[in-house]
Design goal:
With about 350 residues, the protein is of the alpha/beta class. The chain is built from ten helices and 17 strands. The structure holds NADP nicotinamide-adenine-dinucleotide phosphate and zinc ion.
Length: about 350
């Protein structure tokens, strides 16, 4: 199936139109016309090869929503016309212990990522949602709840599940005190989700301009993390912290805001984290943990949770052609709070790459 996308051609290149073929449907495949795709900071990391594994041309995008255009003969769950979504995973072995526990992100054979990963059957490199079509096996396609407004759903597929999963895993409930570090795509979803779970939420931000908005999003307290006095006041106040900062940084100031038995969960930086004194953990039986995306079951669960609680990401719609400016702005923290590509706009490039 002839497909058009936007690809990075090397770590310095801007994203440019790229024409490629999607596979013919296998018996358990669903083909999808992509309507919207969110822009995750991971897309920027991968385009720039920050994690050293990028294969070019690289078509990013793992916050995908669209309409089913066809199904393979054994597909049962979906039919033409259904509104569906695809997140960070498109395949896994389906029989190892993590897969059987619905945690495909930990597949022992290595889960297949939506882009920059090897297809388990053909060996071809997967291309993501910055494109007009995608073909995905049935088990990795999510259902968009009926009443949801499609244009605002995409960021739930990564930013949503990546923050929902640890909130759930650490048992956050009414009255718990949750900190969120960094108010970007992931951070603003963490605030909305934790608030909906009944938690008292504290946002740590480096941006003065986000203080009032953080409160509108549901934060009870906002701390400017560069201000030592404000940090001191927040000392020993939190049960769980979701840290979404995209670069390596000192965890010590945040560990000090944890109460006894509190846990700081890294979901942002994949990097060498600067060392800190173990006394910071000892003096309160504290933990530093980390979490990565979520399995298919919990991804469906967060979609349903958002539908039930009327939670939507704050989306700034862009055309596909604006992606390079969007990347620059995201790098500066200048996005409130997630760019979403309207994929109709890619039509304009079709003639150029025929
Ligand atoms: P984003 O929208 O760019 O938000 C990151 C926020 O962190 C910024 O808005 C900013 O918030 C703060 N920040 C940025 N640079 C900073 C710096 N140098 N020092 C301190 N704070 C800084 O990014 P995102 O899409 O939310 O992604 C965040 C990170 O999570 C990325 O590294 C991404 O790759 C990673 N990620 C991980 C998973 C996973 O499964 N674990 C999944 C998706 C993404 P303030 O202005 O409020 O300070
Ligand atoms: Zn992501």
């Amino acid at each position: 199936m002839k497909t058009i996308g936007y690809a990075a051609y090397n770590k310095e290149s801007e994203l440019k139109p790229f024409s490629f073929e999607r596979r013919q449907l296998r018996e358990n495949d669903v083909s999808i016309d992509i309507q919207y795709c969110g822009v995750c900071h991971s897309d920027l990391h991968q385009a720039r090869n920050d994690w050293h594994g990028s294969i070019y041309p690289l078509v990013p995008g793992h916050e995908i929503v669209g309409v089913v255009t066809g199904v393979g003969e054994s597909v049962k769950k979906y039919k033409k016309g259904d509104l569906v979504a695809v997140g960070c995973l498109v395949d896994s072995c389906q029989h190892c212990s993590p897969c059987e526990s619905k945690e495909e992100q930990f597949c022992e054979e290595g889960a297949t990522q939506t882009y920059n990963s090897k297809d388990r059957i053909s060996g071809d490199i997967t291309y993501g949602g910055y494109s007009d079509k995608i073909v995905v096996r049935e088990e990795f396609v999510l259902k968009v709840p009926d009443k949801m407004e499609l244009s605002k759903v995409a960021p739930i597929l990564c930013a949503g599940v990546t923050t929902y999963s640890p909130l759930k895993e650490w048992g956050v409930e009414k009255g718990d005190k949750v900190g969120v570090v960094g108010l970007g795509g992931l951070g603003h979803m963490a605030v909305k989700l934790a608030s909906a779970m009944g938690a008292e939420v504290t946002v740590f931000t480096t941006s003065d301009s986000k203080v009032e908005e953080a409160k509108k999003l549901g934060a009870n307290h906002v701390v400017i993390s560069k201000d030592e006095d404000q940090m001191k006041k927040a000392s020993k106040s939190l049960d769980v912290i979701i840290d979404t900062v995209p670069v390596a940084h000192d965890l010590s100031p945040y560990i000090q805001t944890l109460d006894i038995d509190g846990t700081l969960i890294i979901v942002g930086a994949i990097d060498n984290i600067p060392s800190f004194h173990s006394g910071l953990l000892l003096g309160g039986r504290k933990r530093v943990a980390a979490s990565v995306i979520g399995g298919i079951e919990v991804t469906q669960e967060v979609l349903d949770f958002c539908a039930e609680h009327d939670i939507y990401p704050e989306c700034e719609m862009i055309d596909m052609q604006e992606i390079n400016t969007a990347f620059e702005r995201m790098e500066k923290g200048d996005v409130k709070y997630r760019f979403v590509i309207d994929m109709k706009s890619i039509e304009k490039d079709k003639e150029k790459v025929q």
